[in-house]
Task: structure prediction
Amino acid sequence: MTPTTTTPPQTSTLHEIRLVGRGGQGIVTAGELLGEAALLDGKFAQSIPAFGPERRGALATCTVRLAQGEILLRCSAAAPDVLLAIDPTIWRQAPVFWGLKPDATLLFNTTRPLADLPARPDGRVCAVDATGIAIEFLGRPIPNTAMLGAFAVATGLVRMESLEAVLRRRFPEKAEKNIAAARAAQERLQWA
Result:
């Protein structure tokens, strides 16, 4: 009999990503797009959204798992490798750092300097003004696709080509604008 556990198995092929933000910022859609891009890369993927009242501004999270093999877990993220803070204020108000691995990559949507952002003992901190990029390219403050472009370059867990293919399929009439936003985020990403 195998004991049950709430933490993922210790394997380098399973990566957990926690997306956090507010309703209306495309958190659930971002999780789906990330999972679809991983599938195109030949990986297994899982997206588990969680949100309170279905309204704009409410806390929204999504756990995405990517792996080279089958994913057997069916719970929210227990020990994320990556945090995507899509709302620039959420990390100060909600327990978004709960359970993060010490070497987690933190990716923030913010205009603040990197020195003002929380750091991880052994992890990497990245920042990009995804909201500004979304307004510039999409005309709306929906930063999810810009954050996914930054995620692709910051982590290497999905290929940009796969992300672009998913955006073309999901948003046929707005694909080029979303792709431009994702590429701009890659170019403007700041690293610490």
